[in-house]
Amino acid sequence: MTKQSKRKKRLRLWVWIVLILISLFLLIFSIVQVFKWKQDNEKTKQQLDTLEDEIQIEEVSPNDTEEIVNADENQNSDYWDYIKLPLISVNFDELKKKNSDTIAFLKVNGTNINYPVVQTNDNEYYLYHSYDKTENDAGWVFMDYRNDINDLQDNTIIYAHGRYDTTMFGSLKNVFKNNWYENTDNHVVYLSTPTENTLWQVFSVYSIKTETYYLTSSFGSEASHQKFIDTMISRSRFNFDAKVSTKDKILTLSTCYNETEKVVLHAKLIKRQQR
Q: In which domain, by residue range, is 177 found?
């Protein structure tokens, strides 16, 4: 065997060794990631089970503080059915003890979304921390740091991971199913805070390549605000036949649909009640 042949043989051997080592590294990395994903899921489930036992949610009857917001002029609109729905109220005393960042409680019909909402001074922390503030890639449901729950801006934004086990906003993609849309009871979102209980009417659901436009919280002019509303309605997979104007407060829910797209839901405030 010539020296050149020996060199080629050694080179092939090293190539195989490198490929085997890379494959082993990828295999071990994948096993570790799956283990961590499962561990994060178990920790999240434990917290959810505990919260479910402790959270006190009740339907509240209308009172003299209840306010109908921007009434729809069309008396045949679904709006008039929705505002008859009872609001939900949540006891925040225990939630605040568990996490002082708690600012609201969110419920979305036709999904598993039934969670306390937190807020801090950035949009990063709760991507990687759970409700008890331990590190967890499942994260938690959190409001955009630019928003003020006590003084609603044009667009209030809430985020969470779209987990495969349907926790957090993993079930938000249910809004694309025909049976979700056909059940009009699903077209409302409940948001309770320490100071008021609110009801929101869904007017748009869609998936879109990752962008920041729909995450605009305030608008510099009425024209730009109206353009935003028109754009959000035009994107919707379904026609909700909801009238939306620049006078309306908007609630936006956002999560990952896949590696490049987001699931987005928009709703407008239709009823509020002081606590």
A: 59-274
22-62: pLDDT as tens digits: 776 766 666 655 555 566 667 788 888 888 877 888 999 88
Residue 118, domain CATH? 2.40.260.10
Query: What is the residue whose two structure tokens read 């209980």?
Result: 197
- Quick one: tokens of 10? 């050694």
Counting the structural domains of the chain, the total is: 2
Asked if 43 and 85 sit in the same domain, the reply is no
**Residue 13 shares a structural domain with residue 103:** no
pTM, full prediction: 0.86
Rg (CA), the chain: 24
Average pLDDT over residues 6-11: 68
Number of H helices and E strands in the chain, helices first, is 5, 11
pLDDT of 139-196, one tens digit each? 999 999 999 999 999 999 999 999 888 999 999 999 999 999 999 999 999 999 999 9
Rounded to an integer, what distance in angstroms lies between the CA atom of residue 105 and that of residue 228? 26
CB 149 within 8 Å of CB 104 = yes
Distances in Å between the alpha carbon of 191 and those of 142, 158, 187, 211?
13, 11, 14, 25
Cα(89)–Cα(68) distance, rounded to whole angstroms? 17
Phi-psi sector, 256: left (phi>0), alpha (psi -120 to 50), beta: beta
